[in-house]
Design a protein that fits this description.
With 108 residues, the chain is mainly α. Helices cover 64% and strands 0% of the residues. The protein contains four helices and no strands. Helix 1 packs antiparallel against helix 2. It starts with a helix and ends with a helix. The model has no long low-confidence stretch (mean pLDDT 89).
């Protein structure tokens, strides 16, 4: 059985990292204003970089939401149980991806 105190600390660490990443990405996803000082290629690079950062921001927010859900469910009787096969999710998987709701076999 997983040590819930250590697990909770790990989840809070991940949440803290993600909150910092979200702030960083939000700063990097500002609109690319048309600017006469930069060339067309540089503007296209800026737009492309914004798209990449938008995707990273979306993923960080999504994972942040999933980790918050994990904290809410941590004391539920079915926490750590695969939602598909109803077998326990291995502790190693939960430590790597706390938001996992499927065991390795069912996730394939």
């Amino acid at each position: 059985m997983i040590d819930k105190l250590a697990f909770t600390e790990k989840v809070f660490e991940e949440i803290h990292k993600l909150e910092n990443a979200v702030k960083l990405y939000e700063g990097m996803t500002q609109a690319v204003a048309p600017d006469d000082a930069i060339g067309r290629v540089s503007r296209m690079d800026a737009i492309n970089n914004k798209s990449v950062n938008d995707a990273a921001l979306f993923e960080a927010k999504k994972r942040l939401q999933q980790l918050s859900y994990v904290l809410d469910r941590l004391n539920d009787s079915d926490f750590g149980i695969c939602v598909k096969c109803k077998k326990p999710i291995p502790e190693g998987r939960l430590l790597i991806r706390p938001e996992s709701r499927l065991c390795v076999q069912c996730a394939r």
